[in-house]
Specification:
The protein is mainly beta. It is built from 4 helices and 17 strands. The longest helix has 24 residues, at 2-25. The radius of gyration is 27 Å and the shape is globular.
């Protein structure tokens, strides 16, 4: 209906302009002789133009194109060598992407829509490919490009009721995907608890990805977008519940909260997910485990007047193989800093971060041994600048990884430093 109104209005406007122009150059009698054929001809021309012009959806379902481009320069030092790379998508979990989304109103309460998101990758997202050395999550000492490809991150449809909630089906984030990443500072592009940047780098004997890749952070073990059916409730007093099921065989539940108490903003979330067999468990690096469980929590608080903020996460990841526990590891992450508008460009955030990935590796390169007390410590600092006029953010981050305790493969004290200067622009 809207498209028809637009067409009618354009025809009326153009016809009106033609009549005025004709009145200035011909007599009233000649103007009156135009008859009805002029409008039919004009509508045909408008139809031709519309047929050759990209539309924002059809007359019932909208189309919105959005996304971001995330690029960076990274300097790395593995204790043996140092180099600098220009990265097309920062090798991070928030790589460049484009989203095609839209919706349609069914009635006063119900609506339906869709989401297709294409991600630009410089790396293969599956940790299992590290075993063969055929892929990585980003640049490494031996490869400054990664695998350079496109992937379908999301492709799903949904139906929603303001009273009853939303049901979505297709490839999408499960209820617990990134559930522990709660950060009111908005500095996720420069630093978050999911450590991808730099973990494709090798130490003396193996890759950092094995040390931190599945240490309860969720996104690379249980949080990879998958084909699931997901239900999300409406928001009640700041709380939202969700659950999903799918693949072969996955299920999870999650809860989120957002609210304000005086001068403080608060956000929190938690979730529990289970994989029962299936090919997805290869991402843990385990030899055909029968079950994998992930429990994770995240919270963030910000004092609005000062901009002081603290965010943190905790997670525990367990896997069984034929009812024998082969994995029980914990991960902690905390980030604290201040966000204020100190210049005319936009807000600036300065922060420090720390994480510990405990029992994250064993001598075989597979799985994570609960009896193995080795760990990886992570330290970092960052500066994040918003440029409001250009819908842009620029950032600098230093990250240091260090092995705490030998386990037969990693050696106590092995280190990796990365320095990243990057930016993201939204469209």
């Amino acid at each position: 209906m809207i498209g028809g109104l637009i067409k009618t209005n354009r025809i009326a406007a153009l016809a009106g302009a033609g009549v005025i122009a004709g009145a200035l150059s011909v007599s009233p009698a000649q103007a009156a002789d135009l008859g009805g054929d002029c409008c039919a001809d004009l509508e045909e021309r408008v139809a031709t133009l519309e047929a050759t012009t990209a539309r924002k959806g059809n007359r019932k379902v909208s189309l919105t194109i959005s996304g971001w481009v995330n690029s960076a320069v990274m300097i790395w030092d593995d204790g043996v060598d140092t180099d600098a790379y220009a990265l097309s998508d920062n090798g991070a979990t928030l790589g460049s992407r484009v989203t095609f989304a839209g919706d349609a109103k069914i009635n006063h309460d119900w609506s339906a829509g869709y989401n297709i998101t294409i991600e630009v990758q410089s790396a293969d997202p599956f940790l299992g490919d590290f075993l063969s050395g055929s892929g990585n999550l980003g640049a490494s000492q031996a490869n400054d490009d990664g695998s350079n490809n496109f992937s379908v991150l999301y492709s799903y449809m949904w139906i929603k009721s303001e009273r009853y909630g939303e049901l979505a089906l297709g490839k999408q984030s499960q209820a617990t995907d990134n559930i522990s990443i709660v950060d009111l500072s908005g500095t996720l592009f420069s630093g978050n608890n999911v450590l991808f940047r730099g973990n494709s780098f090798a130490t003396t004997n193996s890759l950092w990805a094995f040390a931190v890749g599945c240490s309860g952070i969720g996104t690379d073990c249980h949080g990879e977008p998958s084909n699931v059916l997901k239900y999300t409730t409406p928001t009640f007093s700041g709380f939202t519940l969700s659950a999903s099921w799918g693949e072969d065989d996955f299920y999870d539940v999650a809860v989120k909260y957002a609210g304000e108490f005086g001068d403080f903003k608060v956000g929190a979330a938690g979730g529990y997910s289970v994989w029962n067999g299936g090919d997805k468990l290869r991402t843990t690096g385990l030899a055909a485990p029968s079950e994998s469980e992930l429990l994770e929590f995240g919270a963030s608080i910000m004092h609005t007047p000062t901009g002081i903020f603290v965010s943190g996460t905790y997670s525990n990841h367990k896997s069984d193989n034929a009812n024998v526990e082969v994995l029980d590891n914990d991960a902690w992450y905390i980030k604290a800093g201040i966000k204020q508008r100190w210049n005319s460009l936009g807000a600036t955030a300065i922060y420090g971060e720390y994480a510990r990935y405990a029992d994250g590796f064993d001598a075989s390169g597979f799985g994570l041994d609960a009896a193995d007390q080795s760990a990886v410590d992570r330290y970092g600092v960052g500066v994040h600048q918003w440029i409001d006029a250009a819908a842009m953010q620029v950032y600098f981050n230093w990250t240091h990884l260090e092995v705490d305790g030998s386990n037969g493969t990693f050696v106590d004290g092995e280190e990796l430093d990365t320095f990243t200067l990057g930016g993201v622009i939204f469209f």
